[in-house]
Each structure stands twice: as C-alpha cells, then as structure tokens.
Amino acid sequence: MKRKVFLVLSLVVLISLFSFAQDEKYYPEYKGKPVTITMWAWTSNEDYSIAEFEKAYPNIKVQWENFGVHYTKAQTALSAGSGLPDVLMVEYSYAPQYMDLGAFQPINKWLDEDTFIELYGEAALKWCSMDGEIYGTPQDSGALGFFYRKDIFDKYDLKVPKTWEEFAEQAKKLHDLNPEINFITLPIDHWWVDGPIWQAGGKLFDYKDGNWYIDFTNPTAERVFEFWGELIDEGIVKLEMWWTPDWYNALNTGQTASIMLGAWFSEWLKYNAPDSSGLWRVSVPPQWDINNPHNGMTGGSGFYVTSHSKNPEAAAIFVNWLNSHPESLKCLHNYSNLPIMVSTRYENIIEEISGPDEYFGGQNIVETLWESHKLVDTSFKHLPVMSNLANSITMLMQDYLDGKIEKFADILPLWEKEAISIMKEFGYNNVVVGELP
Amino acid sequence: MEGRLFPSSYQKLKHGGGFFLKKRRLDSVKAYVFLSPFLFFFSFMVLYPIIKGFDLSLKGQRGARMWYVGFDNYARVLTDPKFWESFKIPAYLLLVQVPLMIFCAILIALLLEKVEGRKGATFFRLVYYIPSTIPAIVAAIIWGYMFSDSMSPFLPILNLVGFSGKLLTREIVPLVMLIIILWQLTGYTAIMIYSSLLSIPKEYTEAATLDGAGYWQIAFRIKVPIIKDMLITLFIFNAIGALQVFNEPWMLGGLVVLPTNYTPAMYIYNSAFAHGRFTYAAAMGLILAAITFLISFYFLKSATKEMFTE
C-alpha cells in the first residue's frame, strides 16, 4: 500500500516537474522592467486568461480593450504611424495584409520557428509569419463544421452526408419533399474566399518568396464551383445575405436545415437562435474523397505584436502564453466561449473541458469540432487585399442573381480577373498569375 | 478689416488724437479676447483638419509609409470611373427627394399654420418633428426590419395582394432610401418653414383676402414667395445632404448587396477604412467638397438672380 502511494506520488512529482520544464522551454522568463501592455481584441472575457497570465508574469500587466471588430481603427492608427496597441487581434485572412503593410514586428527572438510549430502546428505558420518572420500566435480555429437540424433531418428521413455526392442527394431529396425548407443556404460574401475550396484541399492564391500567386481557375476550385453551381443553377440551393435579421430568423425557426461555418459559429448559434436549442447537431463536413479527407477554415483569429509596440518582449511572451498555455486555453474555452483553439496543447485538455452540450442535444461538439480542426492539413496565405476580394465576389454573386451572369461557375474566372486587377490597382507588381507554389 | 468690425472706433479715429488710437487698440485686444475661444476651436477643428486633409491628399501611401506625389491622387480621382458612378444616387436624390420633400414640407407647414392655436396643434408639431430626433443609423436599422422578408409588418397586407418574393432588392434600394429620408426630414423641414410662415405679417394675408384671393392663392402667391430665402437655404442644406448621403445606404448595404461606391461618401469611407487608402480618400473628399460648394453656389446664384429679375 505504502509503496503504491509512493509510486503515485513520485509519478505526480515527475509529471509536474516535466510539465514545469516544458513550460520553461515554451515560455521564456521576462527579464525586462515591469510594464503594462495594451491589447485590442473582440473576443469576450479575455480577462480571465489575462489574470492567469499576470499571476505567472507579475511584471507584465495587460490592458485589454474591446472595440468590436477594430479594423477601421487599426487601419487609421497604422496610417497615422502611431496608436496601435502592443497586441492586435486580427483574423488569419486579414493578417497578411497587415504583415505586408508593416503593422507587426517579428517575435522570433522569443518564439522561434521550431517552438511555434511544436505549439501551433505547421499550417498555422502561414497565418502568423511571412518571409521567415513570426509576428504572432493563432488563437481560435475557424475549422468548418457541418451544423444541421436533427429534427428536420429526422422528419424527412435525411442522412448526414459523409461525401459531397451524398450531400447533393440529400439536398435534392429535401427539395423534392418540401421546397419551402432550404437544405442549406450559401452566403453572398467572403465565405467563398477560403472556406469551401480550402475544405477541398485547394486554394485560390498563395505567397512564396516575395511573390503573390493567383490561380482561381485551378482544377480543385473549378470542381467546387461547378458542384455548387449545379445545385444553385437548378434552384436546389439558395444564395442569400447572411447575418441579416431574415437569416437569423430562418435559422431560429427551422427554415434552413444546415449550415457550414467555422467552429466558432456554435456559440453564435446559441446566442442568436435560442429557440432551436436541442435541435442542432454538428458533424465533420462532407468530403470530396473519403479516403483522403481535408478541411478548411473560415474565420479564426491570431494575436499579433504590432510595430508600434514599445515592449515587444513582453507582448511576445504574452501572445504565446495566451494562446498555448493550458491554463489560458481553459479560460478561453470556458469564458470566452471559443470551442476550438489552434494550439496543439489544446488536445491535452479537451477531455477535461468538454462534455455533452445541451444546445446540441447532448452531443460533445468540442470533440467533433476538434476532429474537424485536425483535418485542416493544408495552408496558404491570403492576398493582402481581402476586403476588395470580398467585395468583388459579393458583387459578382449579385450580378449572377440579377441574371447578368448566366451560370454560377462562370463567376470564378471573372473573379480571378478582378483579383488580378485589384492587386495591380493596389500597386503589387510581384504577382504571378496562373500557377500556385 | 477692423474698421468694418468696429465702425464706431473707426469714426472716432477719423478725427485723430492719441487717445482714440489707444482706445482702438484696446478695442481690438478686447475683441480678440472675446474671439479667442472661437478662433481656437475654429483653427483646430476646422482649419487644421482641412489643411491636414489637403496635405494628405498630396501623398502616396502604403501602410504607414507616405511620400509626396503632387496632384497624382487628384488626377486619378478625376479619371476614376468608380468615383463618378457614385454620383448617380446623389443626383437622383437632388432631383427627386429634395424637391419632393420641400414641396411636402410646404404643405405640412401650411397645415400646421392653419391649425395654429387650436387644441392639439402642439401635438401635431411634435409628431412631425419626432422622426428627425432619431439618429439616422437607428432609423435605417428599423426600416431594415420593415423591409425584411420574414418579419416585415407589411407582410399580411402584401400577402393579401398576393405579393411574394424578396421585398428588399438592389433595384428597390433608391426607393427605400427615398422613403427613409422623407420620413426622417420632411417633418423637420416643415417645422422650419412653419416658423417662417408665422413671421409673415398678418396684414399681407388680410389685404389679399380683401382683394378676393383664395386660400391657396394666398399660400402660393404670397406666403411662399415671402419665405423664399428660407426655402433656398433649406434647398441648399438638403442638396449638401444629398451629395454626402451615407447612413442609409451604409445600413442597407448590410441587408442587400450594394457596391462599395454606391455613393461618394461610401466610396470615400471604404477607400480609407476598408482599403486603407487614406490619401486617395482625402483627395476624393476634397473633390466632393469642391463639387458640393459649386452646386450650392450655383443654386444660390441662380436663386438670387431670379429674385432680382422678378
């Protein structure tokens, strides 16, 4: 008995020693003077993580400000040459634009590439670094999940699709049985910039060694657009403006049976469609090739150290601790309502923090979404003209709806043309068209 | 300059004498002391931004890096088809909304004048005034709900007529904007006109009545011409509002797809804050200001000319 206790005790000591050593390796000691750093972030309740951080680093205080999505403010401060906080939250898709404009400063000194890959995985490197310089760390994942209404699926005897082929069958089936209910609706917005094509393991653009690459009409992207094009042209799948009162209402009242969005959307659903509690479920998105599964992201944000920061050391230590330390990840999950964090260390705490979710009828959605997240195995860098690219796809989709473009799939080459001219308009001469690295 | 500001001391100065000179200087000092709060705020909040904006418009920009390019931005704005396309909506508002609103406001003002002093008159004035007290952006959100496909309060009526389909489409946005702006500003404009109407001496209308003029004749032949100055001012203010329209299309842009250059103000905003081209936006802003000035100047000039020829 005594020996058993001793064994357990020594094991506990060993593990804690080991994890302490690990912590030391990941999170360098802060040697500078006591400082206060500022951060802009729109996630809720980041203060719980901050409190934990300040316990671990008593010499660094973090002042968190929440202005909502603060891109206009950040753009202004960037152009003015001063006024950015030490740490800025930016979506992965917008980060390259800020990196390219010199909004961030490298933090490799405090977080080298090997440690970064160990903590966040290799894919994330594309979202947080450029030309070998690391600028920040990834927080939550935008891995796509297939959210669906179990009640509607049961009522019309629909199967949860494992492949896109099955998806099309089920969509047609519901359309025949009840054309009033949408199997899924697709947005007239920037969702198309990455989500569905990334999910097929493809991409529209990338960056490598000082050049931007554009090739929208590659086989993978064409396949995705043709697949959706067929369903949309036939009227089985509807395009609509998302995030409008009508859209929320449709989700809340069961006008729409499914939706494909980033992991973070699970929380949005809970808040914006409370009447449909217990009716939703989530699954890994349908696949193009069941033997070679992929996933993509839409949304998800990183925390970057800005070029205006006077305390890059403290800021670098903070962004790394915030987004990878188990204590912080727990807080982010429990209080900031982020379902999935990108950090590889998140896997170790999933069992502890996840459980049946009442809104999703008792399903453990964190497990499913983590599975979805792990399928995000390809990566690329977004073009530095994201808002223009989003405007351009939005306008083209509206033109399609207005009958100015005959077939949905024809949007893709037109969009490519616009992307090329936007890059030119914004003075990028280092653009390679028609190939991807 | 000071002579015009202080005619009395100028008069005294003419008669000469050291005392008056000192007095004049003292007057100037006093004047500037009183003027200083205004001058301070004017220079920091009006002059400085204008100069800064002009300075910005002469630069090229990539992120935080800026360099002088002379009048390059202006040349590019003037040849930017997206900029000129954005004037479609202001032109439409200028030609349709402004005259229509002022005409409706005149009718309401006449009505308010007619019920003046009767029971409930204040209540009606208040009712007409209320919409203008609601911030435009809040009003636009509420109107967004009014035109939503699933929650519009007009749905029962529309269903009765057999209408189905999308309520708010890209084509209908100009009409929706017209409704929102009319709803918001007609009452306010009517109150302004009404207060001018009250200042017309009663003798005029009494004399006209004795001469056998009817109510509408008096209204449009006598009263409206008398308050013409007021109407011109209202016209100019609303013309400026039409050229700079932003809130309504901005809000509706969240419900229906609108181009980033739907109106000049939207294009300027998007260029600066969504696309980070502050210097280009500054040049556009100044060109828009110049156009606004020219249009108001033209109105004012043609209106006064008309008055003189009458």
Produce the secondary structure layout:
The complex is a heterodimer of chains A (437) and B (310).
Chain A: H1 2-26, E1 35-40, H2 47-56, E2 60-65, H3 71-80, E3 87-91, H4 95-100, H5 113-120, H6 125-128, E4 129-130, E5 133-134, E6 136-138, E7 144-149, H7 150-155, H8 164-177, E8 182-187, H9 195-199, E9 205-208, E10 211-214, H10 219-233, E11 238-240, H11 245-253, E12 256-262, H12 265-272, E13 280-283, E14 301-305, H13 312-324, H14 326-334, H15 346-353, H16 365-374, H17 386-401, H18 411-425, E15 431-433
Parallel strand pairs in A: 1-2, 1-3, 8-11, 8-12, 10-15
Antiparallel strand pairs in A: 3-14, 4-5, 6-14, 7-12, 7-13, 9-10
Helix pairs in contact in A: 2-14, 14-15, 17-18
Chain B: H1 2-5, H2 7-14, H3 18-57, E1 59-62, E2 65-68, H4 72-78, H5 81-85, H6 88-114, H7 121-133, H8 136-146, H9 155-161, H10 173-198, H11 202-210, H12 215-226, H13 228-243, H14 247-252, H15 264-274, H16 278-309
Antiparallel strand pairs in B: 1-2
Write a concise keyword list for the protein shown above:
heterodimer; A: 437 residues; alpha/beta; 5-stranded mixed sheet; 18 helices; 15% strand; B: 310 residues; mainly alpha; MetI-like fold; two-stranded antiparallel ribbon; 16 helices; 2 strands; 3% strand; flat; disordered N terminus
Distance between the termini of chain B: 34 Å
Strand count of chain A: 15
The ordered H/E elements of chain B are HHHEEHHHHHHHHHHHHH
CATH H-level superfamily of the largest domain in chain B: MetI-like
Compute the separation of the termini of chain A in Å: 62 Å
The overall number of domains of chain B is 2
Give me the secondary-structure category of chain A. Answer: alpha/beta
Strand arrangement across the biggest beta sheet of chain A? 2-1-3-14-6
- Share of residues in strands of chain B: under 5%
Structural class call of chain B reads mainly alpha
User: How much helix is in the residues of chain A?
Assistant: 40-55%
What would the CATH topology of the largest domain in chain B be?
MetI-like fold
Mean pLDDT of chain A: 92
pLDDT < 50 stretches of chain B: 1-13
Strand content of chain A: 15-25%
Estimate the global geometry of chain A from the Cα principal axes: globular
CATH architecture of the largest domain in chain B: Orthogonal Bundle
Q: Oligomer, anyone? A: heterodimer
DSSP summary: helix tally of chain A: 18
The most extensive contact between chains is: A-B, 35 and 26 residues
Low-confidence stretches of chain A: none
